[in-house]
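chain below, 286 aa
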Amino acid sequence: MILRRLPIPSAALLLSFLVLHAPYTIADEAAFDCLITTESLKFDLTSLGGEHTVSRTRSTPPSTMEDSVRFDLCSELSSKGGVSQQDQCPEGTRACLTKLNKKDDEKDRIISVIPIVSSSSIEAAYNVLSSPKGLSLVLHGPKYADGPAQYLNVTLLCTSDASDPTFVSYNGSELNLEWQTPVGCGDNKSSDDKNEGADEGSGVPPSETVGSGIGWFFLVLFLALVAYFGLGAYYNYSTYGATGKDLIPHRDFWQEVPYMLSDVVSHLCSSVRPRRAPSRGGYISV
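prediction:
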């Protein structure tokens, strides 16, 4: 028996294999809005929205094949200006694969234009990855010609620094992309839920809670003053038979308040005002 050394698969192919065989969760809504919530994490993919283009080149002597995919995770692609409609994917496409044949001294020729993901059949599914940490997102599309249905598998790897997406593979049905981005780390859901629960329990946003607290303070202060003067006037009237200004409780104190405030202001002004050294009239001390 002759034993042959089998080639070791690359890290990208190994990651694609693990992702392909991992269980996926179907998104709740048919229209994917780039917001994913799991049991413990939240993924906000809106920052990854916008049109992106990645490509790969394959040597097919005597020519070269270029596979270029144009995609937008969060919305539909717009038509390209200066390109005929038959050389573009139809409206409603979110990921479009174009195969271009290049040959020296000849004009580039479009071989095929394949809608990989369409909004009408997107059926988003996701899987949270633990090793390496990240998120695998699958977006579906229609069948191409007489072949199988198409779908896009985007692996978002958790990193501190963002990078451009890369073209991993395409087997005629599944298009694999890899993207290193902080978005793949997700946000802790428990802390967000606690903050939301606190706001929902009060029934008002945090800013309104602070404003209402200050309002309650001044309301209580106003009611306390009303009760103080009202009860004091009633006491003076019922006990001493007072009338007019004599009804004011602690009248002597309140009469002195303006003078006390004036003294405080004068003291503060004198403390702030710089002191001038006395002039000696040009004489020099001996």
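The chain has four helices and 13 strands. The radius of gyration is 38 Å.
thats it, cya
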